[in-house]
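Project outcomes to date are best conveyed with an example. Our students and postdoctoral researchers have been running inverse folding experiments weekly, and each run begins with a structure described purely in tokens. The record below, which covers 369 residues, was selected by the lab manager from last quarter's runs and is presented without edits.
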């Protein structure tokens, strides 16, 4: 049995979230979860995964749960952002009903951010909230989506518009899962890690600048350190502002205002992280235009994105009016004003809601060339 002491713990809701980051973790999920639900004879666990991840890792997690005394059921969704929908959510509820799930069920997400956002929202709402665990399998989910308890589905009018805060009780990160991930998704996940560095600490940006080869080659020690640093950093922010009320957590939205609009308007043809990379670059250029950030830092941000082979140009371009319209329904809008996280320096973000549309247009269109 694994050492049950978590690598990182955070308290942002009623129950603590405990996070493990270790190669081989998938085989330990059952025993860890069993220690959380130790008051029930044969608890039920519903594994939610997708068609790509299920065949690769589903058996390992189901066996681990079974060995630890869980009855198990499985719900497999089609891969991709389109599955973060009310229709697929309804199917998950159907599986819960079929398995006779009650309030003691544990929902276990195995996959990337799509699976954990969807399964998380099902956990938040099934019988007004049940225990939720995540086994993230993408870098995006390892460094960002699995931490902090944001869960959501999309509706045709906008991304993540229907959701809830619901903290996972257990996050079991097995960095070995990344070996089967498309390298494009490794690079996309790095956009969120670069985001974390840009909004918190220059030394973490330096770390990225000197570790790109080790990260992209998926060196065990480097990737484990990368994930741990991101988990600690995000846990710290989430602990200070769990439900995004004081502005502290809002900083994590750096690059996401324009990024989300690009993501929706391209019909999810680009990865989430690729859109965040473009959004961060646009936000930096906007910051420079407003006299907040110097040109050398903007160039440095562009270089680090290029170092991780992330896009720095939007090709083909997307119509500016569509982007502006999509941005206005962003959840972070307040009183009809779009909020931007801008940068004054690496590690020094600022939230502004007084940005002239002409400046936004200029920053967005700078991505065309
Ligand atoms: N809740 C949050 O705080 C938060 C934070 C960041 C992003 N997100 C959300 O996360 C989603 C993006 O997540 P993502 O980038 O993980 O995408 P994803 O879940 O769509 O996974 C990307 C692709 O990789 C496949 N895959 C996953 N793990 C694999 C593995 N180990 N081996 C082989 N293939 C694998 C998936 O089937 C999918 O096709 C977006 O919807 C975004 O809004 C949420
Ligand atoms: Zn993101």
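After processing, the design step wrote out the following sequence:
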């Amino acid at each position: 049995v694994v050492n049950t002491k978590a690598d990182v713990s955070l308290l942002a809701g009623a129950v603590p979230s405990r996070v493990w980051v270790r190669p081989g973790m998938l085989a330990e999920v059952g025993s860890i979860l069993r220690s959380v639900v130790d008051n029930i004879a044969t608890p039920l666990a519903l594994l939610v995964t997708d068609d790509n991840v299920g065949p690769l890792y589903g058996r390992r997690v189901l066996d681990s749960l079974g060995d630890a005394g869980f009855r198990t059921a499985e719900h497999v969704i089609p891969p991709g952002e389109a599955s973060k929908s009310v229709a697929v959510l309804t199917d998950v509820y159907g599986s819960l009903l079929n398995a006779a799930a009650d309030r003691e069920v544990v929902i276990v997400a195995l996959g990337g951010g799509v699976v954990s956002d969807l399964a998380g929202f099902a956990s938040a709402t099934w019988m007004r909230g049940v225990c939720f665990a995540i086994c993230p399998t993408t870098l995006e989910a390892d460094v960002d989506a699995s931490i902090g308890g944001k869960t959501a589905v999309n509706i045709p009018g906008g991304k993540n518009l229907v959701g809830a805060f619901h903290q996972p009780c257990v996050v079991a990160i097995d960095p070995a899962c990344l070996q089967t991930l498309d390298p494009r998704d490794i690079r996309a996940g790095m956009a969120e890690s670069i985001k974390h560095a840009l909004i918190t600490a220059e030394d973490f940006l330096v770390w990225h600048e000197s570790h790109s080869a080790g990260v992209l080659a998926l060196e065990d020690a480097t990737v484990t350190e990368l994930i741990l640093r991101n988990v600690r950093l995000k846990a710290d922010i989430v602990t200070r502002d769990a439900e995004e009320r004081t502005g502290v957590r809002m900083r994590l939205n750096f690059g996401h205002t324009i990024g989300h609009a690009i993501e929706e308007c391209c019909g999810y043809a680009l990865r989430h992280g690729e859109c965040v990379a473009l959004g961060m670059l646009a936000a930096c250029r906007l910051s420079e235009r407003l006299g907040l950030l110097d040109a050398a830092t903007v160039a440095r941000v562009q270089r680090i994105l290029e170092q991780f082979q992330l896009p720095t140009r939007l090709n083909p371009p997307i119509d500016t009016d569509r982007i502006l319209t999509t941005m206005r329904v962003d959840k972070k809008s307040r009183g009809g004003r779009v909020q931007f996280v801008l940068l004054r320096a690496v590690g020094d973000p600022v939230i502004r809601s007084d940005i002239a549309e002409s400046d936004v247009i200029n920053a967005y269109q700078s991505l065309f060339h």
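Residues 43 and 70 are 5 Å apart (CA to CA). The radius of gyration is 20 Å. The training component of this project remains on track.
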